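Run log, item B.
One chain of 216 residues. Sequence copied directly from the ordering sheet:
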Amino acid sequence: MITKIHKLQFITPNFDHPEDYLQAIRQYCEAGGRWVQLRMKDFPKPVILKTAFNAKEICERYDCKLIINDHPEIAFKIGATGVHVGKEDKAVYDIRERYGNKLVIGATANTYEDIMEVAKEADYIGLGPYRFTTTKKNLSPTLENTGYQRVMDRLKLKHPYLPVIAIGGILQEDLSSLKETGIYGVAVSGLLHQSKVPDQLIKKILNTFDYVDYCQ
Protein backbone atom coordinates (compact mmCIF):
# COMPACT_ATOMS: atom_id res chain seq x y z
CA MET A 1 0.00 0.00 0.00
CA ILE A 2 1.42 3.38 -1.01
CA THR A 3 -0.68 6.16 0.51
CA LYS A 4 0.40 9.76 0.77
CA ILE A 5 -0.13 10.97 4.31
CA HIS A 6 -2.50 13.91 4.34
CA LYS A 7 -1.46 17.25 5.81
CA LEU A 8 -4.66 17.50 7.85
CA GLN A 9 -6.18 14.74 9.96
CA PHE A 10 -9.53 15.28 11.68
CA ILE A 11 -9.88 13.26 14.88
CA THR A 12 -13.46 12.71 16.01
CA PRO A 13 -14.26 14.43 19.34
CA ASN A 14 -15.65 12.47 22.30
CA PHE A 15 -19.40 11.81 21.93
CA ASP A 16 -21.97 9.79 23.85
CA HIS A 17 -23.64 8.17 20.85
CA PRO A 18 -22.21 6.39 17.76
CA GLU A 19 -24.47 8.37 15.41
CA ASP A 20 -22.77 11.58 16.57
CA TYR A 21 -19.42 10.23 15.33
CA LEU A 22 -20.91 9.50 11.94
CA GLN A 23 -22.50 12.93 11.76
CA ALA A 24 -19.18 14.62 12.58
CA ILE A 25 -17.41 12.61 9.86
CA ARG A 26 -20.16 13.40 7.37
CA GLN A 27 -19.90 17.14 8.09
CA TYR A 28 -16.11 17.03 7.78
CA CYS A 29 -16.32 15.25 4.43
CA GLU A 30 -18.93 17.68 3.13
CA ALA A 31 -16.62 20.57 4.10
CA GLY A 32 -13.85 19.09 1.96
CA GLY A 33 -11.92 17.03 4.51
CA ARG A 34 -10.14 13.97 3.11
CA TRP A 35 -8.47 12.24 6.08
CA VAL A 36 -10.29 11.31 9.29
CA GLN A 37 -9.51 9.25 12.36
CA LEU A 38 -12.42 7.51 14.10
CA ARG A 39 -11.58 7.60 17.80
CA MET A 40 -14.10 5.94 20.16
CA LYS A 41 -12.25 5.34 23.42
CA ASP A 42 -15.07 4.29 25.77
CA PHE A 43 -17.18 2.05 23.55
CA PRO A 44 -17.25 -1.77 23.35
CA LYS A 45 -15.58 -3.30 20.32
CA PRO A 46 -18.81 -4.45 18.56
CA VAL A 47 -20.11 -0.85 18.66
CA ILE A 48 -16.81 0.47 17.29
CA LEU A 49 -16.87 -2.15 14.53
CA LYS A 50 -20.40 -1.23 13.43
CA THR A 51 -19.66 2.50 13.56
CA ALA A 52 -16.40 2.02 11.68
CA PHE A 53 -18.23 0.10 8.95
CA ASN A 54 -20.75 2.94 8.55
CA ALA A 55 -17.98 5.54 8.68
CA LYS A 56 -16.20 3.71 5.85
CA GLU A 57 -19.33 3.99 3.70
CA ILE A 58 -19.50 7.75 4.30
CA CYS A 59 -15.79 8.21 3.57
CA GLU A 60 -16.02 6.27 0.32
CA ARG A 61 -18.67 8.68 -0.96
CA TYR A 62 -16.25 11.60 -0.54
CA ASP A 63 -12.96 9.88 -1.37
CA CYS A 64 -11.87 10.40 2.25
CA LYS A 65 -9.29 8.14 3.93
CA LEU A 66 -10.41 6.53 7.19
CA ILE A 67 -8.05 5.73 10.06
CA ILE A 68 -9.24 3.68 13.04
CA ASN A 69 -7.88 4.51 16.48
CA ASP A 70 -6.47 1.64 18.57
CA HIS A 71 -7.94 -1.35 16.68
CA PRO A 72 -5.90 -2.68 13.72
CA GLU A 73 -8.16 -5.75 13.45
CA ILE A 74 -11.21 -3.51 12.94
CA ALA A 75 -9.34 -1.31 10.47
CA PHE A 76 -8.33 -4.36 8.44
CA LYS A 77 -11.79 -5.97 8.62
CA ILE A 78 -13.67 -2.97 7.25
CA GLY A 79 -11.00 -2.06 4.68
CA ALA A 80 -9.94 1.22 6.32
CA THR A 81 -6.80 2.98 5.13
CA GLY A 82 -5.03 2.49 8.42
CA VAL A 83 -4.80 2.47 12.17
CA HIS A 84 -3.42 4.92 14.72
CA VAL A 85 -2.11 3.63 18.05
CA GLY A 86 -0.99 5.36 21.23
CA LYS A 87 2.06 4.66 23.34
CA GLU A 88 0.07 2.31 25.59
CA ASP A 89 -1.71 0.45 22.78
CA LYS A 90 -0.64 -2.42 20.55
CA ALA A 91 3.03 -2.33 19.51
CA VAL A 92 3.65 -0.82 16.08
CA TYR A 93 6.14 -3.60 15.29
CA ASP A 94 3.53 -6.28 15.97
CA ILE A 95 0.93 -4.54 13.80
CA ARG A 96 3.38 -4.25 10.91
CA GLU A 97 4.40 -7.87 11.27
CA ARG A 98 0.79 -9.06 11.17
CA TYR A 99 -0.65 -6.77 8.48
CA GLY A 100 2.41 -5.86 6.44
CA ASN A 101 1.69 -2.91 4.15
CA LYS A 102 -2.08 -3.49 4.13
CA LEU A 103 -2.58 -0.77 6.73
CA VAL A 104 -1.08 2.69 7.11
CA ILE A 105 0.22 2.85 10.68
CA GLY A 106 0.31 6.04 12.71
CA ALA A 107 1.90 6.17 16.15
CA THR A 108 1.62 8.68 18.97
CA ALA A 109 4.85 10.11 20.39
CA ASN A 110 5.77 12.71 22.99
CA THR A 111 9.55 12.70 22.68
CA TYR A 112 12.34 12.09 20.16
CA GLU A 113 13.02 8.78 21.92
CA ASP A 114 9.37 7.72 21.42
CA ILE A 115 9.73 8.35 17.70
CA MET A 116 12.96 6.37 17.46
CA GLU A 117 11.19 3.33 18.92
CA VAL A 118 8.67 3.18 16.07
CA ALA A 119 10.36 5.07 13.21
CA LYS A 120 11.19 1.96 11.18
CA GLU A 121 7.63 0.60 11.16
CA ALA A 122 5.35 3.64 11.42
CA ASP A 123 4.15 5.52 8.32
CA TYR A 124 3.62 8.72 10.25
CA ILE A 125 3.98 10.10 13.77
CA GLY A 126 1.39 12.03 15.80
CA LEU A 127 3.64 14.17 18.01
CA GLY A 128 2.08 15.97 20.94
CA PRO A 129 0.34 17.32 22.78
CA TYR A 130 0.94 20.88 21.66
CA ARG A 131 -0.96 22.19 24.67
CA PHE A 132 -3.46 20.87 27.21
CA THR A 133 -6.58 19.35 25.68
CA THR A 134 -9.66 17.75 27.20
CA THR A 135 -10.03 15.37 24.22
CA LYS A 136 -7.51 12.91 25.64
CA LYS A 137 -7.07 11.41 29.12
CA ASN A 138 -3.65 10.72 30.71
CA LEU A 139 -2.04 13.49 28.73
CA SER A 140 1.75 13.48 28.20
CA PRO A 141 3.73 16.70 28.91
CA THR A 142 2.86 19.53 26.54
CA LEU A 143 5.47 20.47 23.91
CA GLU A 144 4.53 23.90 22.58
CA ASN A 145 6.73 25.38 19.87
CA THR A 146 10.06 24.92 21.63
CA GLY A 147 9.39 21.22 22.20
CA TYR A 148 8.47 20.62 18.58
CA GLN A 149 11.51 22.51 17.35
CA ARG A 150 13.81 20.49 19.60
CA VAL A 151 12.41 17.16 18.39
CA MET A 152 12.31 18.14 14.70
CA ASP A 153 15.90 19.42 14.76
CA ARG A 154 17.11 16.02 15.97
CA LEU A 155 14.77 14.00 13.79
CA LYS A 156 15.80 15.59 10.48
CA LEU A 157 19.25 14.08 10.91
CA LYS A 158 17.92 10.53 11.35
CA HIS A 159 14.55 10.38 9.55
CA PRO A 160 14.13 13.54 7.47
CA TYR A 161 11.25 12.10 5.42
CA LEU A 162 9.13 10.62 8.21
CA PRO A 163 5.86 12.65 8.31
CA VAL A 164 5.33 14.13 11.78
CA ILE A 165 1.88 15.49 12.57
CA ALA A 166 1.39 17.97 15.41
CA ILE A 167 -1.54 17.10 17.65
CA GLY A 168 -3.23 18.24 20.84
CA GLY A 169 -5.08 21.48 21.50
CA ILE A 170 -3.90 23.23 18.33
CA LEU A 171 -5.59 26.54 17.53
CA GLN A 172 -5.78 28.43 14.27
CA GLU A 173 -3.24 31.00 15.44
CA ASP A 174 -0.69 28.21 16.06
CA LEU A 175 -0.44 27.14 12.42
CA SER A 176 2.16 29.65 11.24
CA SER A 177 4.56 29.05 14.11
CA LEU A 178 4.13 25.27 13.88
CA LYS A 179 5.03 25.19 10.20
CA GLU A 180 8.33 26.89 11.02
CA THR A 181 9.37 23.90 13.14
CA GLY A 182 9.34 21.61 10.09
CA ILE A 183 6.20 19.74 11.11
CA TYR A 184 4.55 17.91 8.17
CA GLY A 185 0.93 18.71 9.10
CA VAL A 186 -1.58 18.82 11.94
CA ALA A 187 -4.32 16.71 13.51
CA VAL A 188 -7.22 18.62 15.05
CA SER A 189 -10.51 17.78 16.70
CA GLY A 190 -12.47 20.55 18.42
CA LEU A 191 -10.94 23.26 16.25
CA LEU A 192 -12.66 21.87 13.16
CA HIS A 193 -15.76 20.43 14.78
CA GLN A 194 -16.63 23.76 16.42
CA SER A 195 -15.77 25.90 13.41
CA LYS A 196 -18.66 27.75 11.75
CA VAL A 197 -16.72 27.77 8.48
CA PRO A 198 -14.97 24.38 8.41
CA ASP A 199 -14.48 24.48 4.63
CA GLN A 200 -12.47 27.70 4.91
CA LEU A 201 -10.49 26.37 7.85
CA ILE A 202 -9.60 23.17 5.98
CA LYS A 203 -8.29 25.21 3.05
CA LYS A 204 -6.30 27.47 5.38
CA ILE A 205 -4.61 24.52 7.08
CA LEU A 206 -3.80 22.76 3.82
CA ASN A 207 -2.46 25.93 2.23
CA THR A 208 -0.26 26.53 5.26
CA PHE A 209 1.42 23.16 5.14
CA ASP A 210 1.56 22.81 1.37
CA TYR A 211 3.60 26.02 1.49
CA VAL A 212 6.06 24.27 3.80
CA ASP A 213 6.51 21.53 1.20
CA TYR A 214 7.20 24.08 -1.49
CA CYS A 215 9.86 25.80 0.58
CA GLN A 216 11.76 22.70 1.69
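Observations after the first pass:
- Residues 31 and 196 are 11 Å apart (CA to CA).
- The first helix runs from residue 18 to 30.
Flagged for discussion on Thursday.
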